[in-house]
Amino acid sequence: MDKTLYTIIVHSENRAGLLNQVTAVFTRRQINIESLNVSASSIQGVHKYTITAWTDKDTIEKVVKQIEKKMDVLQAHYFTDEEIYQHEIALYKLATPVLEEKPDVSKVIRKCHARIVEVNPVFSIVEKNGMSEEITQLYGELQALGCVLQFVRSGRVAITTSYFERVNEYLDEREAKYRRTNASKKEGEEA
Asked: What is the pTM of this model?
């Protein structure tokens, strides 16, 4: 089967232990999580998990359905790279003596639109924001120049390219249902 890199976006209430439940869905299906980022969302009290994994369409559909069954999960959706805007950040720790001796290192940093954020006699820190491929490319070029001491990258952060975020519609519907239910109860009590 052809595998695709899917981005799963999960919106949930902020509850302890939920991350473990979500990652267990992947573990049970023996799917390796490539990246995982958890943060507050634009909606108060709602957290957003951004997870990437290589799998096939049938499997990702099943995974998302299982995640949505978790008690504190509001919604989960999967996306291909064409349906989202995604970004990462990376930090490269470089040997300052090599950076000073080889002008090509600075040229590569500028060419890749990265920036030097720290310099001391022993090491320098370079920061790169961008797409996964750009971050990997810069790493490869710096590694070839023999100056990389450490490298770290964040998990993917992503937003959908659609106008509305589906969780907003879901929460609006839930709120309207809650109001209707409370109005019906109040009418029943008054009768």
From this structure: 0.73
